[in-house]
Automatic annotation (TrEMBL):
The keyword Aminoacyl-tRNA synthetase does not apply. Keywords: Pyridoxal phosphate. This is Aminotransferase class V domain-containing protein. Gene3D superfamilies: Type I PLP-dependent aspartate aminotransferase-like (Major domain). Residues 197-282 form the Aminotransferase class V domain.
Length: 450
C-alpha cells in the first residue's frame, strides 16, 4: 500500500466523488477500538484508521526488507512529500518552513532550547521574560522550567478565567500580562547607592491555539497581533490539537513558530507532528535536540534523521489525506461536522444535568467542556481522577474531568467533563455517559466519599 503513495499526486483539492465513505466503512476502519467503551477522549491520544495503519506497516516492512536502500532512496524523498502536503494544508510559504518531529513536545523543546541559548549567551538579558497562558499544557510549563527558568529567564503566566463568556476575556487578560512583563524594575550599583531603571523585555510568548484542559479555542491571531504591537521578540504557538480540529493558516496567524500533532485529529498513528518555523534569522538558530550528522543543515533536514528509528508515522501523511478525502468536504467537512455534533451533545448533557458549557460554542472546536452536577462533590484534582476512573471501570466511559476550583456555593459547578467527537463516535456514546452520571447521582455517589 505504501508504494502507491510514493509517486502520486499530492494536490489536496477535492475531486468530484460519486459517493463518500459509509457508516459501515467507518466502523470497519475503527474496528480495532474496544466496542465496550464510549470513547469520548479523542483529544488525548487521537485515532488511526485501519487503512492508514496498513500503509504504516508497509513502510515498516520496506525499511526492514532493505534498510540501506530505504535510507538512501526512499526516506528523505517521502518525508519531503509529507512535508509538502503539510505545507499546503497549513498555508506555509515554503516547504523548508515545515519540519517533521515526533510530537508537539519535541517541537517545544526545539524552540525553548533556542531561547535557553539566547539567555546563556547574553542575547536575552537576565530577568527578561517568557509569557505563557495559565492553561498551557503541563509539559510545556515543565519545559519552560527546564529551558528558560534555569537559564535566568522570568516566566509570566497569563491568568485566564474559566468558564469563559467571550474572546474578550482572553484578550483583556493577555494585554494585562504583557504590561506586567514590560514593567520597570530596579537595578544599579548598590555600593554607590545608585539605581538605574531598566525595562524588562518579553522575549518569547508561548500561546495555545486550542488549550487542552480546559479546552478552549484561543483567539490566537489577535494575541499574535498584540505581541507584534508590543515588541515581543518571538511568538510560538503550541497548537497540539489544532490541525484537523480548527482552522490553521500560517499566513493568517503570523507566528514565528507553530506546532501541531497529526496523530490527534488528523488520523496519523503516534507519533508525528510538524513544526513550522517562518523563514528568518530567528529560525536559522533552531536545532533538533538529538544531534546527528545533519546538524547545521537546517531544522527541517536535522529532523529528517535523528538516528536509526521508526519513521513510518511521518511517512503515512499521504495515506491520511486519502482517508479524509473519503469524507464529504475532506478534513474541513470532518472538522465542521465534529464541531456541530459535539456542541449538540454538550447541550444535551448540560440540559440533562442542569449545568452549562464552559465557553460559547464558537470557542470550542471538536471538544466541549460540559459542567458536571455539583452534587457529585468534586473538590480536588484527585476527586476528578476518582470520578474518571469510576466511569471507566464501572460504566465503560472514557472521558477526562477538569477540576475548576472551589465552589462559590453548593450549587456551583466545580468540575467539567471534556467530551470529544471524532468520526467513529456515535450518539449512543454520549447518552451512555449521561446515563452513567445519572446512575451515580441516583446511587448517592460523591467523589469525596472513601
Amino acid at each position: 500500500m505504501a508504494d502507491q503513495h510514493q509517486n502520486g499526486d499530492t494536490h489536496l483539492s477535492k475531486r468530484t466523488k460519486l459517493s463518500y465513505i459509509t457508516d459501515e466503512e467507518i466502523e470497519a476502519e475503527f474496528s480495532h477500538h474496544d466496542p465496550e467503551v464510549a470513547r469520548l477522549n479523542n483529544g488525548a491520544f487521537g485515532c488511526c484508521p485501519a487503512s492508514v495503519l496498513a500503509a504504516q506497516r508497509q513502510w515498516q516492512l520496506k525499511n526492514l526488507r532493505q534498510p540501506d536502500h530505504f535510507y538512501f532512496n526512499d526516506l528523505k524523498s517521502n518525508l519531503l512529500r509529507s512535508r509538502s502536503i503539510i505545507k499546503e494544508l497549513v498555508n506555509a510559504e515554503h516547504v523548508d518552513e515545515i519540519s517533521l518531529v515526533d510530537n508537539a513536545s519535541t517541537a517545544t523543546a526545539i524552540v525553548l532550547q533556542q531561547a535557553s541559548w539566547a539567555f546563556h549567551d547574553g542575547t536575552f538579558g537576565k530577568g527578561d521574560a517568557v509569557l505563557v497562558l495559565h492553561h498551557a499544557y503541563g509539559a510545556v510549563k515543565k519545559a519552560l522550567e527546564a529551558y528558560v527558568a534555569r537559564a535566568g529567564g522570568a516566566i509570566i503566566e497569563v491568568p485566564l478565567p474559566f468558564p469563559l463568556t467571550s474572546e474578550n476575556d482572553v484578550v483583556r487578560e493577555f494585554r494585562k500580562a504583557v504590561e506586567i512583563g514590560k514593567s520597570e524594575s530596579q537595578g544599579g550599583d548598590e555600593e554607590n547607592g545608585t539605581a538605574n531603571r531598566t525595562r524588562n523585555r518579553i522575549r518569547l510568548a508561548v500561546i495555545d491555539h486550542v488549550t487542552s484542559m480546559p479546552s478552549v479555542v484561543i483567539p490566537v491571531k489577535e494575541l499574535v497581533s498584540i505581541c507584534r504591537e508590543e515588541g515581543v521578540d518571538q511568538v510560538f504557538v503550541d497548537a497540539a490539537h489544532a490541525i484537523g480540529c480548527t482552522r490553521v493558516d500560517m499566513q493568517e496567524i503570523g507566528a514565528d513558530f507553530y506546532t501541531s500533532n497529526l496523530h490527534k485529529w488528523f488520523f496519523c498513528p503516534p507519533s508525528v507532528a510538524f513544526l513550522y518555523a517562518r523563514r528568518s534569522s530567528k529560525s536559522r538558530d533552531l536545532h533538533h535536540p538529538v544531534v546527528s550528522h545533519e546538524y547545521g543543515n537546517g531544522i527541517a533536514v536535522e529532523s529528517s534523521w535523528a538516528g536509526n528509528r521508526d519513521y513510518s508515522a511521518q511517512l503515512v501523511v499521504p495515506a491520511a489525506v486519502d482517508f479524509v478525502n473519503r469524507f464529504e468536504g475532506g478534513i474541513e467537512g470532518i472538522r465542521k461536522r465534529n464541531h456541530d455534533v459535539v456542541v449538540e451533545m454538550g447541550n444535551m448533557l448540560v440540559e440533562a444535568w442542569g449545568t452549562h458549557l464552559g465557553c460559547p460554542p464558537h470557542m470550542s472546536a471538536s471538544m466541549v467542556m460540559v459542567g458536571l452536577p455539583p452534587s457529585l462533590g468534586i473538590s480536588s484534582d484527585s476527586d476528578a481522577l476518582k470520578l474518571r476512573t469510576r466511569l471507566r471501570d464501572h460504566f465503560g466511559v472514557e472521558v477526562p474531568i477538569f477540576f475548576r476550583g472551589p465552589a462559590d456555593d453548593h450549587r456551583s459547578v466545580t468540575a467539567y467533563a471534556r467530551i470529544s467527537r471524532q468520526v467513529y463516535n456515535k450518539v449512543a456514546d454520549y447518552y451512555k455517559f449521561r446515563d452513567a452520571v445519572n446512575q451515580l447521582l441516583q446511587d448517592g455517589f460523591t467523589s469525596t466519599a472513601s
